[in-house]
Design goal:
Layout (H helix, E strand, L loop, with lengths): L1 H19 L1 H9 L8 E4 L5 E8 L2 E6 L2 H14 L25 E5 L3 E4 L4 H4 L6 H13 L4 E2 L5 H11 L4 H7 L6 H5 L12 H21 L4 E3 L4 E2 L3 H5 L3 E2 L3 E2 L2 E2 L2 E3 L5 H17 L4 E3 L14 H15 L4 E6 L6 H4 L7 E5 L25 E6 L13 H13 L6 E6 L8 H9 L9 H13 L4 H11 L42 H14 L7 H31 L3 H22 L7 H11 L3 H14 L6 H6 L13 H21 L9 H9 L13 H12 L1
Parallel strand pairs: 1-3, 5-6, 5-17, 7-13, 13-14, 14-15, 15-16, 16-17
Antiparallel strand pairs: 2-3, 2-4, 8-12, 9-12, 10-11
């Protein structure tokens, strides 16, 4: 009897442990009851691995830690059950009888670091996320093998405590900390204060959010990367505190924070204050992110070697086991800053490996012939700039360059891969591809992989869909290897109007590398197959996205007719072409209303829900509206070139912002053709007026995605 009781007790303890497992919680969030449909086994291994097996009528997923196991679950769902969990759909109805794994399948990797997030991602996509949305993202990360994400929420509270101890008043530290939609550029030392001042409730809210994020990540065994101390101090620190600082200059019209010189005795003192508060609030981390002089910061007069050692020393004082994580972008991190640091204490993110690799590939302009010397580095895909909407990628090239890097002389310090997009929730095919690379030992064929992806994403194959995807993979997803363009071929519909529009943002470096009609024809293949996929969330999302791209391509073809008819003074043709162009904006707006991820209403609704008072809600909505339009004040938007950098093809924004700009401009050209005196249009004034509004936009889907996409596509013909 006693033995039976002990056995029952031990089994109960095991059951409680399993119930409390982060993997079981993840499965339950995917589908209630899903944890009972799997056998989960965790075993020791000196390498990350997952195995798929089958026993007693259930799939077995085993691995060496919760992230590896979650990766195995995702692999099983994709390639055995035809279920793909993505940003547009993170829940699924699992079958009662789970598909059999006929033979044990094992994947392992010696690439132990799989990184997630550019600083910019936290602002362009995540500025207004609450805990439920973050919980979903952490699940997405675990399912995709991510174990090293950047976590910047709540850093304002750290600086509030530090600056208060240094004698700054509440008003003064609020002039330093940026607003919710501009946190990324503040923490990259690009600007201070813009978007603020933040209310007290925001600091407290973000602090609690960060605690929730870190708690869940640590349950999974995910290592958070926290912002470390990079030498940043407020730009008035010399006058206010008598510190010896360097002035990094301006960034696109904004004054940067100052850089505290490493020889100043206060460097280690302030760093110690910073790490003490960071640790008090969020615990110690094993990885800290620091990017001094990011994106053109003036480093003249700074002993870079001493600066690197000062930053490293402060980090090691906080945690002797910690490593510095740095973004390789432009000349940063300066070679002089990192060359004498010990191996193992620095992880360099080769931020734009698919287009501007710095790891040592001599075919590219930004390359470092010595690579990153003794330091560990990650092969990263940037892909998206500004959170801009649009199909884009280098599918075949990303595969080939990854295996080329592994086989190179710099492969011995390659420790993993990273997603370093400026904005996320787009182009799921590219992120799926990148996150599978560490788990595939040998190079593989792009077309064969794509066939598997299609079946996994939609749960079935279809010849029209396969043909459409193959076309896309060989055109818009085949950006030339040496191209350095910043993400998608930007839509002319979103551009500030002129007779010489090519790109939308100032630095896009776009090239015409595919034929617009190829994309329009590919969209037609998806439309042809649409009825067979009604109710399939992934297909409906992709259909809307691909038809959206087709509409943008049609705009690209109509725009030259608008220009040439105006220059030819052909008023009837100009009016017809202008009406067609404006109709495309309206069609695009209607189409995108069917998917919440393509609605400005979701973005604004998230911002307003973050506020506790009407004033807070209005501040956050203003942050949200400004970031996706003017980005900054008049100086930064126009002379600094930031206007439309974060432009979005979104429902609501198209009809009320981009349509207004183009309609105003085309009406003015019509008046000129009719002989009226030309009037200059102040576009910033037009744009700023929209940022100051608080008119509501629906956040939920409107209309049927399949029917609307088919109707919009037919309207393109």
């Amino acid at each position: 009897m006693k033995k039976t009781f002990i056995l029952f007790y031990l089994l109960s303890i095991v059951g409680l442990c399993q119930a409390a497992s982060p993997v079981h919680g993840l499965l339950e969030r995917i589908d209630k009851g899903a944890s009972r449909k799997f056998i989960i086994e965790q075993t020791r291994s000196d390498r990350d691995f997952f195995e798929l097996d089958y026993r007693n009528g259930k799939p077995v997923v085993r691995g060496n830690n919760p992230v590896s196991i979650a990766t195995g679950i995702h692999w099983y769902l994709k390639y055995y059950a035809g279920i793909h969990l993505s940003w547009n759909q993170m829940q699924a109805q699992l079958p009662d009888k789970m598909p059999v794994v006929p033979h044990k399948e094992r994947h392992e990797t010696n690439l132990s670091l799989r990184y997630d997030f550019n600083y910019c991602t936290h602002s362009y996509t995540m500025a207004f996320w609450d805990w439920p949305r973050w919980e979903q993202e952490i699940d997405w990360m675990a399912l995709h093998g991510i174990n090293l994400p950047l976590c910047i929420a709540g850093t304002g509270s750290v600086w509030r405590a530090v600056l208060t101890q240094l004698g700054y008043s509440k008003e003064e530290f609020n002039e330093f900390v940026a607003g919710p939609a501009f946190q990324s550029w503040w923490l990259m030392n690009n600007l201070e204060g813009w978007g603020g001042p933040n209310p007290d409730a925001w600091y407290d809210q973000q602090e609690q959010l960060q605690r929730n994020i870190l708690k869940r990540m640590r349950e999974f065994g995910i290592e958070p990367v926290l912002p470390g101390y990079s030498g940043m101090v407020p730009s008035n620190a010399k006058e206010k505190l008598g510190l010896n600082v360097a002035d990094p200059g301006r960034w696109n019209g904004y004054r940067r924070p100052a850089f505290l010189q490493p020889e100043d005795e206060n460097f280690q003192r302030i760093a110690q204050l910073y790490y003490k508060e960071l640790t008090r609030l969020y615990g110690k981390a094993n990885y800290y992110s620091m990017d001094p002089f990011h994106e053109g910061g003036n480093a003249r007069g700074v002993d870079l070697g001493a600066a690197g050692k000062a930053i490293w020393k402060a980090m090691k004082a906080a945690n002797p086991n910690a490593a510095w994580v740095a973004q390789a972008w432009g000349a940063c991190p300066y070679d002089a800053m990192i060359k004498d640091l010990p191996a193992g204490d620095l992880v360099v993110l080769d931020l734009f490996s698919e287009s501007r690799p710095q790891w040592g590939d001599t075919a590219y302009k930004w390359t470092r012939k010595q690579g990153f010397r003794q330091h560990d580095w990650l092969y990263c895909m940037l892909l998206n700039f500004g959170g801009n909407v649009g199909l884009h990628g280098k599918m075949k090239h990303v595969i080939e360059e990854f295996y080329k890097a592994r086989a190179s002389e710099f492969g011995h310090t390659l420790k993993g891969v990273g997603m370093t997009m400026e904005g996320t929730e787009n182009n799921p095919v590219m992120y799926e591809l990148l996150t599978e690379l560490p788990w595939r030992e040998q190079a593989f064929d792009k077309d064969e992989w794509l066939k598997g992806y299609i079946k996994a994403r939609y749960g079935q194959s279809n010849p029209d869909v396969e043909a459409g995807w193959l076309t896309l993979s060989n055109t818009i997803y085949a950006c030339p290897d040496l191209s350095t363009q910043q993400g998608t071929h930007e839509s002319v519909l979103c551009a500030r109007p002129s007779l010489e529009v090519y790109q939308v943002s100032t630095w896009s470096e776009m090239e015409d590398y595919y034929e617009p009609m190829d994309i329009i024809r590919a969209a037609g293949q998806f439309v042809k197959a649409a009825d067979a996929f009604r109710g399939n969330a992934n297909f409906e999302y992709d259909l809307v996205d691909i038809v959206r791209q087709a509409v943008a391509e049609k705009g690209r073809l109509i725009y030259p007719v608008v220009v040439s008819s105006y220059k030819a003074a052909d008023l009837p043709l100009f009016k017809a072409a202008s009406e067609r162009f404006l109709q495309l904006i309206q069609l695009q707006d209607r189409l995108l209303g069917t998917q919440p991820l393509f609605k400005v209403g979701r973005w604004i609704d998230d911002a307003r829900r973050m506020g506790n008072t009407p004033a807070e809600k209005d501040l956050y909505e203003w942050n949200a509206r400004v970031q996706v339009t003017t980005w900054g004040n008049r100086l930064a938007a126009d002379r600094g070139g930031l206007h439309d950098y974060g432009h979005k093809e979104w429902n609501g924004l198209l009809r009320d912002f981009y349509y207004l700009r183009w309609k105003t401009y085309l009406d003015e050209l019509t008046h000129r053709l009719a002989g009226q005196a030309p009037k200059e249009i102040d576009f910033y004034a037009l744009e700023e007026a929209w940022t100051l509004q608080q008119n509501p936009y629906p956040a939920e889907a409107e209309g049927n995605a399949i029917d609307t996409a088919c109707e919009v596509y037919r309207a393109l013909q």
